[in-house]
Amino acid sequence: MSTFSRFLDPQAIVLRAEADTPEAVIRLLGGKLQALGRVHPSFVEAVIAREATMPTGLPLGTAFNVAVPHTDPEHVIAPSLALATFDTPVVFSNMEDPDEKLPVRVVFLMALNERKRQIEMLQQIAETIQRPGAVEALAGARTVDEVWAALDQTSFA
């Protein structure tokens, strides 16, 4: 079973979402996780605060950049992921250079209750987004099945 299939609930996937800011994206996805009982009420504000000081935009050198917002484990009830794709990119700050703004088309919101698991999930996401065509396939997905197809090509148990 892949890491994605263990933690990514289909009800926490939003395809072709609309949001103007990273905060709006985090509220959208965090709200999904909260409705599923996966995170504490403090989760969304904690992620927003962390994103403001430690941004998570990942430059991929294409029009399909990714962001991976997350926060500390104490805000998490059950390990989870949420995913959103955007036809119109949302501007996130680059994690390596916060002054650089990146147009992001895919966001993975991580809610993990162990630091070790956070590192493993970041590695899994990195493997996936580095695979040629993977981010484009995610960004272009129109169904949850298309999301699974894009994600399942790279996974570990």
UniProtKB/TrEMBL annotation:
Tell me the InterPro entries matching this sequence.
PTrfase/Anion_transptr, PTS_EIIA_type-2_dom, PTS_SugarTrans_NitroReg
**Pfam families registered for this protein in UniProt:** PTS_EIIA_2
Q: Which UniProt keywords apply?
A: Sugar transport, Transport
Q: Does Transport appear among the keywords?
A: yes
Instruction: Give all residue intervals belonging to the PTS EIIA type-2 domain.
Output: 6-154
Transmembrane region(s) = none
PANTHER family linked to this entry: PHOSPHOTRANSFERASE SYSTEM MANNITOL_FRUCTOSE-SPECIFIC IIA DOMAIN CONTAINING PROTEIN (PTHR47738:SF3), PTS SYSTEM FRUCTOSE-LIKE EIIA COMPONENT-RELATED (PTHR47738)
Can you say what this protein is called?
PTS sugar transporter subunit IIA
